[in-house]
Design goal:
There is one protein chain. The strands form 8 sheets. The chain has a 9-stranded mixed β-sheet with strand order 22-21-23-24-31-30-29-26-27, sandwiched between helices. The chain is built from 5 helices and 31 strands. The protein is elongated. The protein has 3 domains: 130 residues, Immunoglobulins (Immunoglobulin-like, Sandwich); 109 residues, Immunoglobulin-like (Sandwich); 240 residues, Rossmann fold (3-Layer(aba) Sandwich), CATH 3.40.50. Helix 2 packs across helix 5 and helix 3 packs parallel to helix 4. It is mainly beta.
């Protein structure tokens, strides 16, 4: 009989169990687009890292992706398991790396550069156990594409003139025009690095590159007299471009189809701020007066319409092209078709302070109106019944030869005003003198008392040796849109001639 003791046999300890490699697992969270920039003064680098609680978690930066390069930020988490020991660390690499890197961390923030419209990145990580074994056969991997979205651009809302405001299909400007736009990009507004514009042509060499600007002002160095078209596009860090937008755009039914640059003629500007003057009777009267004073080819006309230019830069530039400005405001400035001189107050003040001379014929302003360009102490309505009868005299405070007489009924309320009196020992200060007073009441239809002031001249004394240009404010309308109103004692043109040939040249 043969007995077996295999039940009690044991493996030889000199032949141990085979050691097992660890296993690795990986998860990915994609987050924001990041950009780094260097302060040109201090040289310090700044990073918009988003909501990262601990920047020491950043394990890798591919190809110096932060250096003036937009990057896509990705948060990776990994872990390992080892059936016969414990995981002590991890080795990882990107597809662009030639060697593995080691870390004991189990997460990291990585940044991949956006350099092309489309790219593919691969990340792999392998766990290492306490026996030094590495999961090289089945490391955890993740492959993800990075697709760049093209940017977009559009002109800022109402920054281009509207047909309803200019009452025509052609936008007229002098040789200064500011364009304003808004840009966007799904990858982040920071990815837009270049703005390019072209004038009249879009050939490869026609584009002028700006930085990440939101506006540009063209002037007489670029804008010749005649018709023009402005083209605009933006470009992102990866070179993707937006669609081209243009002004004028014939597909936009709200905006004019043409843009014409008018030449600057002479040193006198007539501003037509009377949008309800549908037949241009008022403008033609002023033009006839200026024709006789300075000649038909020696002045320019600016028809504002219902809205001033969007950019304050353009308003100031239009005024600064000229030494003298005649600004004809509306006969009745109430409602949607009101004149715009109040909106241009800061521009008028800048023009006068710079030495320009301006005559403003403004009617029926509010009692609480304040003019930065002409400080007023107080004002009141002369004709509370809304009637100023023909035959009434405006007495010149300078020369009786300049007296004016109403040749038409004025059927709107008009103001008398008292210019502000300022301390003449401080600088700058405002000085004024009255030019016209209305006669004393002539009948029961006249609702004023005394001889109210209706026209004054003022200037700012900037220093003991420097003065501003002169500004004349008149509250009696020279024209009602149908007929001139002050032709009863010779034309009111004699007063404009007096301003241009005597007051403005002193």
């Amino acid at each position: 009989m043969t007995l077996s003791c295999s039940l009690w046999e044991y493996d030889n300890p000199s032949n141990p169990l085979e050691q097992k490699t660890p296993e690795t697992y990986l998860s990915l969270i994609a987050t924001d687009t990041i950009f780094a920039y260097q302060d040109t003064v201090t040289g310090e680098w700044h990073y918009n890292l988003g909501d990262i609680p601990d920047t020491t978690q950043i394990l890798d930066t591919l190809k110096n992706a932060f250096t003036d390069t937009f990057t896509s930020r990705h948060e990776l988490h990994w872990w390992g398991e080892d059936s016969d020991g414990e995981v002590v660390g991890y080795q990882y690499r990107w597809n662009v790396d030639t060697v593995w890197s080691f870390t004991t961390k189990e997460s990291g923030i990585f940044y991949v550069p956006i350099l092309t419209n489309f790219d593919v990145f691969r990340f792999e990580v392998a766990a290492m156990d306490n026996d030094g074994l590495l999961d090289t056969l089945t490391p955890a991997k993740v492959v993800f594409p990075v697709k760049n979205s093209p940017p977009s651009v559009s002109f800022r809302y109402l920054s281009n003139p509207q047909i309803v405001d200019i009452q025509g299909d052609t936008a007229f400007t002098f040789p200064t025009r500011t364009f304003v736009w808004d840009s966007d990009d799904q990858d982040g507004i920071e990815t837009i690095t270049n703005v390019l514009y072209a004038l009249d042509e879009t050939c490869d060499t026609c584009w002028i590159q700006l930085g990440a600007e939101s506006s540009v002002t063209l002037n007489e160095t670029e804008l010749d007299a005649g018709f023009h078209t402005f083209y605009l596009k933006v470009q992102d860090i990866a070179g993707a471009e937006s669609f081209i937008v243009s002004f004028p755009d014939t597909l936009n039914e709200d905006e004019p189809n043409y843009w014409k640059v008018m030449p600057v003629v002479g040193n006198v500007l007539l501003v037509d701020d009377f949008p309800l003057d549908g037949y241009n009777n008022s403008k033609m009267w002023f033009r006839t007066v200026l024709d006789s004073i300075v000649g038909g080819d020696n002045y320019s006309v600016w028809e504002i319409g219902d809205e001033l230019p969007f950019s304050s830069t353009d308003i100031t530039a239009n005024l600064n092209y000229f030494d003298h400005v005649i600004w004809n405001a509306a006969y009745n400035n109430t409602g949607a078709a009101s004149d715009t001189y109040l909106d241009a107050s800061s521009n008028i003040l800048s023009y006068v302070m710079g030495g320009g001379n301006l005559f403003l014929d403004a009617i029926d302003w509010d009692d609480d109106s304040t003019f930065a360009f002409f400080p007023i102490d107080s004002s009141f309505t002369i004709n509370t019944n809304g009637r100023l009868m023909m035959g009434r005299i405006l007495h010149s405070q300078v020369d009786s030869a300049l007296d004016l007489e109403l040749s038409k009924l004025i059927a709107v309320r008009v103001k008398s005003f008292i210019p502000a009196k300022e301390d003449s020992t401080s600088f700058p200060h405002f000085e004024s003198e009255d030019l016209y007073h209305l006669q004393e009441p002539g009948s029961g239809l006249d609702t004023w008392i005394g001889t109210p002031n209706v026209c004054s001249m003022g200037k700012f004394v900037i220093s003991p040796s420097q003065e501003s240009g002169k500004i004349i404010l008149m509250s009696i309308p020279l024209h009602n849109g149908y007929d001139p109103t002050l032709e009863g004692n010779g034309s009111a043109g004699k007063f404009i001639e007096y301003l241009l040939n005597e007051v403005f040249v002193e």
